[in-house]
TrEMBL record:
InterPro entries: AAA_dom, DNA_Partitioning_ATPase, P-loop_NTPase. Residues 3-157 form the AAA domain. This is ATP-binding protein involved in chromosome partitioning. It comes from Candidatus Methanoperedens nitratireducens. It comes from the Archaea. GO terms for molecular function: ATP binding. SUPFAM superfamilies: P-loop containing nucleoside triphosphate hydrolases. The keyword Nucleotide-binding applies. It holds the Pfam family AAA_31. Keywords: ATP-binding, Nucleotide-binding. Coiled coil: none annotated.
Length: 246
């Protein structure tokens, strides 16, 4: 399964969710690819403390081959393609969006053939941009990570509208919701999902251990019994239910 995580703005927690979900799946015996397509503010390399010399940016500029940018992480079957910050996006390095899509698909076909991952997870750039929309149109399930910040909600509404015009049906995941407000907020979140035109795929509650990790630890490894880690496992169950996977 190919899964992409999106957001309207930075700081919603999508990189931590992407990285922890990837590691959770590896712990369950899956081969997983984790691809950072956030050229504006990549975070996967920092989350995993990767010493990157060549990244996805080099690949799309024809400065590196696939084997130069794939980093096998740990003892499990996790294969990471990181990025580094640049002013451009994936589409900008090609003549047009069609060429960019073709190049990305060629990369993923090659990646699939060489490493045979069961799942590929994409950490996409925030905002309404060509790169994020390109990935959204490529994956089987796309998830917009949203907080209850007003600006974030308004931006998510815009992304939802564009996604629907492109015949994509992303889900919405609410993140960092205070635990003491969850029960009282259930109906509000359901109504908000309807107004946004997005299928809800769950809520991840604010977790003190997660906040204290400062995006420097993989929670499912460092704190496997934490509430955050349990919620990552629950998210995977909901993704399966949403897609009808066994």
């Amino acid at each position: 399964m190919w899964i992409s995580f999106h957001s309207y703005k930075g700081g919603t927690g999508k990189t931590n969710i992407s990285g922890n979900l990837a590691c959770y799946l590896v712990s369950k015996g899956y081969k997983v690819g984790l691809v950072d397509t956030d050229f504006s503010g990549p975070g996967i390399h920092a989350l995993f403390s990767l010493n990157t010399k060549k990244t996805l940016v080099d690949y799309v500029q024809n400065k590196a081959a696939l084997e130069d940018i794939v980093h096998k992480r740990g003892e499990g079957e996790l294969y990471i393609i990181p990025s580094y910050a640049t002013e451009e996006d994936i589409v900008s390095f090609s003549k047009d969006p069609a060429q960019a899509k073709e190049k990305l698909q060629a990369l993923l076909r090659d990646f699939q053939t060489r490493y045979n991952p069961d799942h590929i997870i994409f950490d996409c750039s925030p905002g309404l941009n060509r790169s994020s929309l390109l990935i959204m149109g490529t994956t089987e399930i796309s998830i917009i990570v949203c907080t209850l910040d007003k600006q974030d909600i308004r931006g998510t509404y815009v992304i939802s509208g564009v996604a629907q015009r492109l015949r994509s049906r992303p889900r919405i995941l609410f993140n960092k919701l205070p635990k003491n407000k969850y029960e009282a907020s259930k109906k509000t979140l359901e109504e908000l999902s309807r107004k946004l035109g997005l299928e809800p795929i769950g809520v991840i509650l604010y977790d003190e251990a997660m906040a204290g990790a400062w995006s420097r630890k993989i929670m499912v490894h460092a704190y496997p019994n934490s509430e955050y880690s349990k919620q990552i496992a629950q998210l995977w169950e909901r993704i399966n239910q949403s897609t009808g996977s066994p």
